[in-house]
Structures
1.
Amino acid sequence: MHIPDGFINGATSAGFGVAAAGGVGAALRQTGKYLSERQVPLAGLVAAFVFAAQMVNFPVVSGMSGHLLGGVLAAVLVGPWAGFVVVAVVLLVQGIFFADGGLSALGLNIVNLGFIGAVGGYAIYRALLRALPKNQRGVIVSAGIAAGIAVPLAALGFVIQYAIGGTVDISMGTVLTAMLGTHVLIGIGEGIITAFVIAAVVRSRPDLVYGAPQYTGVRTEVLS
């Protein structure tokens, strides 16, 4: 889902760039309020996992690719705002050193993968967990389903951006069908992977999982 340079016009890219910069600033302030010293190494590991996952690309339409997002996984492990920062940093590194996603489109990608994928995905996770038993199975199932839903939602974010300022001669119908069709399938895979990873962590070190409910010993306000 990395958007390359020139796929969205300059005005739209700039607008989303400003929004993304403001979002990252707000996320950094929120992250500083809750991220403990013992969670910082975990955030680094999550960033490495997300980086590796996003480097595996699947072609969608000309100039566009799809890939695993990792936003919900990051948000459940280290919190939605730290997850947002993790995804933003990964996208910046990929854009600068690997030319994976255009730098002029960085704001677009951060909004889609970071805000919609991580923060929005975490909101879905919390909603699901309220409806499911607040135990290990509930955490695992909620995280997996939320991850699966967040991927096509992030793809829909791109479709909206393309409708606002797309510059490539591809019909909206083609873009919508290709993006959602591909990312629904990617979402299924991401949901399964996220569930397996969360299961391994929550069963061995539930105290390190930000998004686990009170029974694990994590702060009670997490699910308030």
Note: The two ends are 32 Å apart (CA to CA).
2.
Amino acid sequence: MILVLLGPPGSGKGTQAKKIVRDRDWPQLSTGDMLRAAIAAGTALGREAKRYMDSGSLVPDQVVIGLIRERTEQPDAKAGFILDGFPRTVPQAQALDQMLQSRASKVDRVVLFEIPDEELVRRLSGRRTCLKCGAMYHIENAPPEKKDVCGHCGSELTQRDDDRPEIISKRLKVYHEQTAPVAEYYRKQSKLRTLDALKSPDEVSLALAETLAR
């Protein structure tokens, strides 16, 4: 199965994707993770992507589409995969359809995580990331035992530039203007299902499992 998870940043789709990976052994293709890895490695793609991500703008379609094309050609993605953070625009969705059609495949199911903007700002602005091992914390929901120190490796925790309130607001504006129309694109294909992402992770997980079973 090829599953697309849609929703604004901080809606929990990445968390749910990781659970599906554990439960069903489908690989998760997260453009956010792949782009951050490229940035950390200092690749040309990473440097180009960082300029856009730091300002809260979307990474250009040609960069992301190229990344997805390369990743879906790897052996572990041949039988199916979860797309988390892609497609972000209608042209990306169209490019994905064309790419899959050339392989005699298609997107099977699309799930939209719906949640109010004010909750997203609270969730994202409270996130802290370990500079060394990548562990994630939240100052309210999952704080470290020692303030600003990773409990796994003892390294410093930091707030990502794109998790600052002013950047979050811009990211949400970009999402509503450019990414939300992707939901309508898939709704017209009768592939879209919606979930209330304001519920607890366990409740969202249960609703997602029921959606995938239909």
Note: Residues 2-117+164-213 form a domain with the Rossmann fold fold (CATH 3.40.50.300).
3.
Amino acid sequence: MKKSEKTKQKILTVTINLIAKRGYASTSTREIAEQADVSEATIFKYYKSKDKLLKTIVIQTMEKLFKSSSEKKLSEIINKNKSKNPEIILKTLLEERFNFFDEHKNELKVIFQEMLINKKVQNYFKEEIWSKMVKISDGLFKQIKNKCTLKEEIDGYMFRKTLFGMIFFTILFENILEDNINLDSNKQATLISNIIFDGISF
């Protein structure tokens, strides 16, 4: 990796950690420069402004999240486990996601904080990420529907709302509201999978 790329990555890492700890508004480029051991001029040379620095962090993390999931990982898990019980498929998917989220706690804190207040982040997530997540959710729901007897009122939308609601609240609860809690990914995936199936099937 070139020196310039290492410097840019160091700036991003320091920024992520500071924003995750203090929030965007309370993080200054002066503090970022001090902790990254660079000048503020270097930050502005690479990222032009604090806002562009934040946008880079959010977009990079969202792309990383998507590439490790809907582009490849989740589709592979679904296809590999087609013949298995849908509950096992869901548990495997959840476990993989929780492990991923655990590895990227600080980046996700930044994204969740910004999604509540930043329209650009909201729009990017909706246009670039959410549409793909919906396709994966619909594919998984179709498999479940073919193998299980579902309650009449459960459709693809309600399944998606339940699944992603549980996932997003788990991230929010553990990483923002209760950051001292650290539950085992396998146990969490099993419990949430059981809760979802108890709610949607007979």
Note: Residues 119-147 form the longest helix (29 residues).
4.
Amino acid sequence: MANEKPVLSSDSKFHFSCHPGLSCFTHCCRDVNIYLSPFDVLRMRKRLGLSSGEFLNRYTISLIGEGSGLPVVLLKMDEEHDRKCPFVTPQGCQIYADRPWACRMFPLDKCSEYDQFTILTDPSRCRGLEEPQELHVEDYLREQGLFVYEEVEAIFKLLSNSPRVLAEKVANPRIVEMYYMACYDLDKFRRFVFESRFLDIFEVDPEVVERMKTDDLELLQFGFKWLHFGMVMGDALKIKDEILQEAKKQQAVRKG
């Protein structure tokens, strides 16, 4: 079809440059749905000096995925000012260094196929596509810091794309709550780990435990691992032997 967008690979080239001299500058920062990944939330709220709960309450909307039943987080747009991003100014983004994944990817859009991309919009809406600067897709992704997301959220992607997770919509509100907490509300997850019997149940390297006390990235990736344990693969974490033995005893008593 004539209107089909060309498919690009990481080796492809495209023309793009964004700067304040363009008539469309910051127009792409309004009236758009921006889904925030767990790493987005971590980076943005630390940039703003907010707790995870404060950031989520002030700047996001939580929805439940129709297919998965799991929560997704959207950036809350300013409804009183043309639904613009709360961080955009006439001069550009206030949190540019820690902007979300979706903003980093623009104007590219990732296809469902591995290593395939399309241009999300057209020159009538994005004058930057008419700029003479030519870019390699792979170089652009690297410059935008997108490969870091692949490293940080590798287990999260395995979890959210797991056939076991996708096979049936999650209906248990407790699982939904735990998923939201471990992915997005890290301050609450830290309290859960250190103020409950969590560390009495699971075997966790003492060095990892110490890092999780202050390192949000360590805590986030551990949260992914914990969710993977509970929702996909039961050996992603190890339960302490004494806990398993006690559970076996209780099971034997119930059977007896």
Note: The first strand starts at residue 13 and ends at 15.
